[in-house]
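Format notes (please read before filing issues)

Several people have asked whether sequences and structure tokens are stored in separate files. They are not. Every record keeps both together, in the order shown below: the sequence lines, then the token lines. Line labels are part of the format and must not be stripped during preprocessing.
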Amino acid sequence: MIFVREGRIHAGVVSALGITQIIGYGTLYYSFSILAPQIAADLGIGLEQVFAVFSVSLFVGGLSAPVIGKQMDKIGAATVLSIGSVLSAFTLLLCAWSPSLAVFAAAIILLEVSSGMVQYQAAFAALVENDPRTASRSITYLTLVAGFASTIFWPISASLTGFLSWREIYLVYAALNLLVCMPLHLWIRAKGKASHATGKQDREHVAGVVPPHRRRSVLILVSVAFAILGFTLSSVLAHMVPMLGALGLDTGAVIIGSLFGPAQVMSRLINMIFGTRLSPPVLAAISAALMIVGTAILGVTGASVVGAVTFAICLGLGSGINSIAQGSLPLYLFGSDGYGSLTGKMASARLAAGAAAPFAFAFAMQRLGTEISLLATAALGGLGFAAFVSVALETRRKATFSA
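Then the structure lines:
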């Protein structure tokens, strides 16, 4: 649990969470698309099969999200983060050892479950359960730091493949989760316990803007919107570097793909400065629009360097704001009570709907070509944008009537 003095964010804890989020996303998610070709060759299967396993793992991870959310409300998010670090290290070791496709598939599925215990869902809950009043600001700061995950780990993973096998790389990543992330999560947990023991924490509840009789329908609408955008982002992000290479950008694919991370950071920095003027539903709609526009531009421009750079920047800007919206929008709409369970349900819908994205996009690229696949993905994302706009308009009307 996060320790806050006089309503101020504990910079050390937010920084520690930032480090663990960079490692968590870098080792458990962003590295997969880089290592997938080696994995496929080593196991003697096709690349589509590797991403099919990844899709199944995302689906199971989605099913586990509500259970993880309930445990965060029950035993505390920092405790879940600590346990998740150990489980992440274990599953990475299992991946590295896996002698067959069956063992590898089981390991990847467990890896996705552990991801839900150490990535944004748990980190956001840790910030909210301590002080809901400052949670939105804390989430923005956290995502600002964690936005460097792809920028750091895509080049690292690509470089390591030059002199290490994918199994050896997973061993290195297991060590990072066990020796860096776990101690930091335990430290955060100890800080939370100390603040409660000394009685320094004055926690208040935050009420949501959605009235009780509308909670269920709005929850469904927002969950569907996040699910659609999650599918759109997962489709493109899982194949970012190989996809850019297939379009003809060759060695520049890694460099262009690495712009995604700084763009995420830039969007969060802009939001930190100017975002207080916009409500979370509006921010969610803006994030959807940016991702859709970026994906469509790449689909239209193909091998154009300018188009690819624009795509990476737009996708990064949209993804950066989307990450903030995933934490702040539920708090804004529904309040702080039961935040862990609520976001667990929303994460379940997002991950389950997006589970087929890596495999479906790989299949589409093989059958339809990269450009058409990108345009179809952008069109699907438009439905999520429409849903966020609907929520933004409804909450704006309520705010106007209340005023």
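For reference, the curators noted about this record: Confidence is low (pLDDT under 50) at residues 1-6. The first helix runs from residue 11 to 43.
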